[in-house]
Specification:
Radius of gyration: 25 Å
Strand content: 15-25%
Order of helices and strands: HHHEHHEHEHEHEEEHEEHEHEEEEEEH
CATH superfamily of the largest domain: Glycosidases
Distance between the termini: 64 Å
CATH class of the largest domain: Alpha Beta
Shape: globular
């Protein structure tokens, strides 16, 4: 027992005992940190969207609100197929468009007839939301729901009565389908939409009341933000912090959302939304226009690899299934990612660096232990440490992963990764922010030692993981064909 603890055991009190030595103090969190739910959200990395509804059958992206529910009749609807495709692709959450801008509801809402109960599908007795929720639970996926604030069918839209109508439908979704992981809002309105002020404060309060574990998405959060484009690309500098007062919903500055705000007042992580096809809903002509493997890899490295979660849209077709072309591309992506990141060439090496107070709790070895729940940290006064890793012999690699221990906040402002080649340290890659994860790509190099150098940080860094990898030969072949 150290002297400080012995003093307390004897009942002498804090004043008499003094404070614990700096080396015994845990690293203090920054002023803005994520919730446990936000940390778990980023750990999912890859999630899916399913845009499905009357637009699937009209070949439109935005409906009119005047569609006849009779057109909604998927002939082979199979939510289990959706869930299976997602699970095998490494997708952790599936977000369904329960209602898009046209107002057609994929569940039998009590507050409108413009829903599946007025369609011929299952003789009006079907419930897409219920089947997707059940399939997600069975497959071990989390469920998210999108409820468009804009409703082109509902006659009360444009009046204050509509906010209550929306809350009624939101309550149905939040109480009838089990745990909801993510609730997706947006501020979309067409150029001819009626003037309408959405009561987002009331919407969010209801979600917090009924689904307290759920995270909410919109331009400015409150939990997850739009990344400023629909190409799935986050900024090379990307802070998980944001000042929501600086964001005008529906008219937000895309550049601000894309990079976040180092001085942000709230932790609002970025989500990179993009469709696997040119459109968000299914269109038969796009069966041959599914994004290439090279395109998806580029998106992955600039979303997950830029401190974000990738939200990839997989629009079910008119059968009610994810199309074979989309499935094949997802399988290719999963194979390449698995082959690339299956083996961390840094694990098994030894790391040297200035552990906080020399304490093993903060040792650089935690960078190589394969767990993002442990971390390396230096003393408070050292914001620019470096860690050298001896790989135990020559290794060839061309990819790297660096992670911060984000539960204590986002700290790193600039860093570089070096390798010792022919006795000289050479920079392989450099960057600004790290956050939950930063993925680096560079030309293949063979080396026995690497060095991670923190060049600038807002506080002593807390680094969770360092990984070195060799890219899949399939990826190399794809890039050579371009």
């Amino acid at each position: 027992m150290n002297s400080f603890l012995r003093c307390l055991v004897l009942g002498l009190g804090l004043a008499a005992c003094g404070s614990p030595a700096p080396m015994d103090r845990p690293l203090a969190p920054l002023a803005v940190v994520p919730t446990p739910q936000q940390v778990a959200y980023q750990q999912r990395e890859l999630i899916a969207f399913a845009h499905f509804g009357v637009n699937t059958f009209t070949d439109r992206e935005w409906g009119t609100g005047q569609e006849d529910p009779a057109i909604f009749n998927p002939t082979e609807f199979d939510a289990r197929q959706w869930a299976k495709v997602c699970r095998e692709a490494g997708i952790k959450t599936l977000i369904l468009t329960a209602k898009h801008h046209d107002g057609f509801c994929l569940w039998p809402s009590k507050f409108t007839t413009h829903s599946v109960k007025s369609s011929p599908w299952k003789n009006g007795q079907g419930d897409v939301v219920a089947e997707v929720a059940a399939a997600c639970r069975e497959a071990g996926l989390k469920l998210g729901l999108y409820l468009s604030p804009w409703d082109m069918h509902e006659p009360t839209y444009g009046t204050q009565a509509y906010n209550q109508f929306y809350l009624n439908q939101l309550r149905e979704l939040m109480t009838q389908y089990g745990p909801i992981a993510e609730v997706w809002f947006d501020g979309a309105k067409g150029p001819n939409a009626k003037d309408m002020t959405y009561d987002f404060a009331a919407y969010r309060q209801l979600v917090r009341e009924l689904q307290p574990e759920a995270l909410m998405f919109s331009d400015e959060g409150p939990d997850i933000r739009w990344i400023g484009n629909e190409r799935g690309l986050a900024g090379a500098t990307n802070w998980s912090l944001l000042n929501p007062d600086s964001v005008d919903v529906g008219r937000a500055d895309p550049a601000y959302l894309n990079r976040g705000d180092a001085q942000g007042t709230h932790w609002i992580v970025g989500e990179c939304d993009v469709s696997i096809r040119p459109g968000w809903f299914y269109h038969p002509k796009e069966d041959t226009q599914v994004k290439s493997l090279a395109d998806l890899l580029e998106i992955y490295y600039q979303s997950v690899g830029h401190n974000c979660t990738l939200l990839l849209n997989l629009p079910p077709d008119r059968r009610g299934r994810i199309h074979e072309a989309d499935v094949a591309r997802l399988q290719e992506l999963r194979v390449v990612l698995d082959e690339t990141f299956a083996r961390n060439l840094a694990q098994g090496g030894t790391a040297q660096g200035p552990a906080r107070g020399g304490h093993p709790r903060y040792a650089p070895a935690h960078l190589l232990d394969g767990r993002d729940s442990t971390y390396f940290a230096p003393d408070d006064t050292l914001r620019t440490p470096s860690v050298t890793v001896d790989l135990g012999g020559p290794q060839t690699f061309d990819r790297a992963s660096v992670q911060e221990y984000i539960a204590l906040g986002q700290r790193v402002q600039a860093f570089r990764l070096e390798a010792q080649v022919a006795g000289q340290w050479q920079t392989l890659a450099s960057g600004t922010t790290i956050g939950y994860k930063r993925l680096l790509r560079f030309a293949p190099v063979t080396a026995s030692q690497v060095r991670l150098v923190i060049e600038q940080a807002v506080a002593a860094p807390a680094l969770a993981e360092l990984g070195l990898y060799k890219s899949s030969s399939r990826e190399t072949a794809v890039l050579q064909r371009q």
